[in-house]
Amino acid sequence: MAFSTKERTFTLDLLSYNKYKTYMKYDTINQIFEIWESVPKMAKETGIIQDTLYGMKRRNSIAHWHWETIIQAAEKRGVTDLSKEVFSRLVLKERAERLAA
């Protein structure tokens, strides 16, 4: 199907918006924890020790070496929009807020 330049630009803008919207769905680390009903349930599904998860939740920070494990466990729950990019954005957001304070 042939698209005019205007339609093609709109499509690209819509794709960019959808990607942006996905990133913005997770505005805090706590929202990632909310994918699971509880920390013990998250621990069971990720294989990460409960105390480690409670510490990350309390610090509002998830160690980068756990990102892939959490992403894979979330995918098994049907969550397909969690990515390393989302984690990276949250880290940058947290650092910017800390510097601004």
Question: Can you characterise this structure?
Answer:
By secondary structure, the chain is an all-alpha fold. The protein has six helices and no strands. The protein has helices spanning 5-25, 29-33, 39-46, 50-59, 67-76, 84-100. It is globular and about 35 Å long. The mean pLDDT is 83.
Write the topology of this structure.
Elements: H1 5-25, H2 29-33, H3 39-46, H4 50-59, H5 67-76, H6 84-100
- Characterize the overall form: globular
Q: How large is the count of helical segments?
A: 6
Helix content: over 70%
Oligomer: single chain
* Structural class based on helices, strands and sheet pairing: mainly alpha
Number of strands: 0
Low-pLDDT stretches: none
Main sheet attributes: strand count, strand direction, barrel closure? none
Whole-number average pLDDT?
83
> What is the radius of gyration?
17 Å
Order of helices and strands: HHHHHH
In whole angstroms, the N-to-C terminal distance is 52 Å
Kindly estimate the percentage of residues that lie in beta strands according to DSSP: under 5%
Task: Give a quick summary of the entry.
Helix content is 70%, strand content 0%. By secondary structure, it is mostly helical. The N and C termini lie far apart (52 Å).
Entry keywords:
101 residues, mainly alpha
